[in-house]
Design a protein that fits this description.
alpha/beta; two-stranded antiparallel sheet; 24% helix; globular
Protein backbone atom coordinates (compact mmCIF):
# COMPACT_ATOMS: atom_id res chain seq x y z
CA UNK A 1 0.00 0.00 0.00
CA UNK A 2 1.14 3.49 -0.72
CA UNK A 3 -0.13 6.58 1.00
CA UNK A 4 0.46 10.26 0.49
CA UNK A 5 -0.45 12.08 3.69
CA UNK A 6 -0.98 15.83 3.47
CA UNK A 7 -1.39 17.98 6.55
CA UNK A 8 -4.25 20.33 5.68
CA UNK A 9 -6.08 23.31 7.10
CA UNK A 10 -9.14 22.02 5.23
CA UNK A 11 -10.03 19.75 2.34
CA UNK A 12 -13.13 19.32 0.21
CA UNK A 13 -13.92 16.51 -2.19
CA UNK A 14 -16.51 16.70 -4.94
CA UNK A 15 -17.67 13.34 -6.23
CA UNK A 16 -19.06 12.96 -9.75
CA UNK A 17 -19.56 16.75 -9.94
CA UNK A 18 -22.24 16.79 -7.24
CA UNK A 19 -21.71 15.18 -3.83
CA UNK A 20 -19.39 17.26 -1.63
CA UNK A 21 -17.69 16.24 1.60
CA UNK A 22 -15.18 18.19 3.62
CA UNK A 23 -12.90 18.23 6.64
CA UNK A 24 -11.25 20.90 8.74
CA UNK A 25 -7.73 20.78 10.17
CA UNK A 26 -6.22 17.32 9.80
CA UNK A 27 -4.95 14.96 7.13
CA UNK A 28 -5.87 14.15 3.57
CA UNK A 29 -4.72 10.61 2.78
CA UNK A 30 -4.41 9.46 -0.83
CA UNK A 31 -4.31 5.64 -0.75
CA UNK A 32 -3.02 3.31 -3.47
CA UNK A 33 -3.44 -0.46 -3.22
CA UNK A 34 -1.55 -3.10 -5.20
CA UNK A 35 -2.19 -6.82 -5.71
CA UNK A 36 0.35 -7.84 -3.05
CA UNK A 37 -1.33 -5.80 -0.29
CA UNK A 38 -3.28 -7.45 2.50
CA UNK A 39 -4.95 -6.90 5.88
CA UNK A 40 -1.60 -6.71 7.68
CA UNK A 41 -0.52 -3.83 5.42
CA UNK A 42 -3.79 -2.01 6.09
CA UNK A 43 -3.46 -2.48 9.86
CA UNK A 44 0.18 -1.33 9.93
CA UNK A 45 -0.49 1.72 7.74
CA UNK A 46 -3.58 2.81 9.69
CA UNK A 47 -1.59 2.68 12.92
CA UNK A 48 1.34 4.52 11.40
CA UNK A 49 -0.83 7.34 10.05
CA UNK A 50 -2.81 7.66 13.30
CA UNK A 51 0.41 8.08 15.32
CA UNK A 52 2.41 10.10 12.78
CA UNK A 53 3.64 13.21 14.62
CA UNK A 54 3.26 15.94 12.00
CA UNK A 55 1.33 18.58 13.96
CA UNK A 56 2.92 21.33 16.02
CA UNK A 57 3.05 21.22 19.82
CA UNK A 58 3.14 24.23 22.15
CA UNK A 59 6.80 24.81 21.15
CA UNK A 60 5.96 24.77 17.43
CA UNK A 61 7.72 21.40 16.92
CA UNK A 62 6.09 18.63 14.90
CA UNK A 63 5.42 16.45 17.89
CA UNK A 64 1.67 15.74 17.88
CA UNK A 65 -0.39 13.18 16.00
CA UNK A 66 -3.83 13.46 14.45
CA UNK A 67 -5.09 11.75 17.63
CA UNK A 68 -3.45 14.38 19.86
CA UNK A 69 -5.03 17.32 18.03
CA UNK A 70 -8.35 15.49 17.48
CA UNK A 71 -8.03 16.38 13.80
CA UNK A 72 -10.12 15.30 10.86
CA UNK A 73 -9.13 12.69 8.27
CA UNK A 74 -10.18 12.27 4.66
CA UNK A 75 -9.17 9.14 2.71
CA UNK A 76 -9.36 8.97 -1.08
CA UNK A 77 -8.54 5.92 -3.21
CA UNK A 78 -5.73 6.72 -5.64
CA UNK A 79 -4.62 3.85 -7.89
CA UNK A 80 -2.29 6.22 -9.78
CA UNK A 81 0.14 6.07 -6.83
CA UNK A 82 1.25 2.76 -8.37
CA UNK A 83 2.15 4.28 -11.73
CA UNK A 84 5.19 2.82 -13.45
CA UNK A 85 6.98 5.30 -15.68
CA UNK A 86 9.99 3.15 -16.62
CA UNK A 87 9.05 2.81 -20.28
CA UNK A 88 7.76 5.55 -22.56
CA UNK A 89 5.68 8.50 -21.51
CA UNK A 90 2.36 6.83 -20.75
CA UNK A 91 2.22 5.50 -17.17
CA UNK A 92 1.36 1.88 -16.59
CA UNK A 93 -0.70 0.82 -13.59
CA UNK A 94 0.01 -2.90 -13.87
CA UNK A 95 0.83 -3.15 -10.13
CA UNK A 96 -2.36 -1.42 -9.02
CA UNK A 97 -4.87 -3.92 -7.66
CA UNK A 98 -8.06 -4.44 -9.61
CA UNK A 99 -11.19 -3.08 -7.91
CA UNK A 100 -12.37 -6.50 -6.70
CA UNK A 101 -9.20 -6.78 -4.59
CA UNK A 102 -8.60 -3.12 -3.77
CA UNK A 103 -12.06 -1.98 -2.68
CA UNK A 104 -12.47 -4.35 0.31
CA UNK A 105 -8.95 -3.48 1.50
CA UNK A 106 -9.74 0.23 1.11
CA UNK A 107 -12.89 -0.07 3.25
CA UNK A 108 -11.04 -2.17 5.85
CA UNK A 109 -8.29 0.46 6.00
CA UNK A 110 -10.85 3.22 6.64
CA UNK A 111 -12.44 1.19 9.48
CA UNK A 112 -9.02 0.52 11.00
CA UNK A 113 -8.15 4.22 10.83
CA UNK A 114 -11.45 5.07 12.54
CA UNK A 115 -10.65 2.56 15.28
CA UNK A 116 -7.12 3.93 15.72
CA UNK A 117 -8.24 7.57 15.90
CA UNK A 118 -11.65 7.20 17.50
CA UNK A 119 -13.10 9.50 14.83
CA UNK A 120 -15.24 9.15 11.73
CA UNK A 121 -13.11 9.18 8.58
CA UNK A 122 -14.50 11.10 5.62
CA UNK A 123 -14.04 9.27 2.31
CA UNK A 124 -14.41 9.67 -1.38
CA UNK A 125 -16.28 7.04 -3.37
CA UNK A 126 -14.10 4.18 -4.54
CA UNK A 127 -13.61 4.32 -8.31
CA UNK A 128 -15.57 7.56 -8.77
CA UNK A 129 -14.40 10.70 -10.55
CA UNK A 130 -13.41 13.13 -7.81
CA UNK A 131 -12.06 16.65 -7.46
CA UNK A 132 -10.16 17.61 -4.33
CA UNK A 133 -9.66 21.13 -3.09
CA UNK A 134 -7.26 21.54 -0.17
CA UNK A 135 -5.14 23.99 1.71
CA UNK A 136 -1.89 22.16 2.44
CA UNK A 137 -0.58 23.27 5.82
CA UNK A 138 3.18 23.86 5.94
CA UNK A 139 3.27 22.39 3.36
CA UNK A 140 3.68 18.99 4.99
CA UNK A 141 3.41 15.99 2.65
CA UNK A 142 4.58 12.49 3.68
CA UNK A 143 4.85 9.38 1.47
CA UNK A 144 4.62 5.92 3.07
CA UNK A 145 4.93 2.57 1.30
CA UNK A 146 4.15 -0.56 3.34
CA UNK A 147 6.77 -2.44 1.35
CA UNK A 148 9.37 -0.33 3.19
CA UNK A 149 8.31 -1.07 6.78
CA UNK A 150 11.74 -2.10 7.98
Amino acid sequence: MRAVIQRVQHSTITINDSCTRSIGKGCLVLLGIEDADNADDARWLAGKIARLRIFADENDKMNQSIIDIEGDIMVVSQFTLHASTKKGNRPSWIKAANPQIAEPIYHDFVKLLETETGKKVITGVFGAYMKIDLLNDGPVTIFIDTKNKE
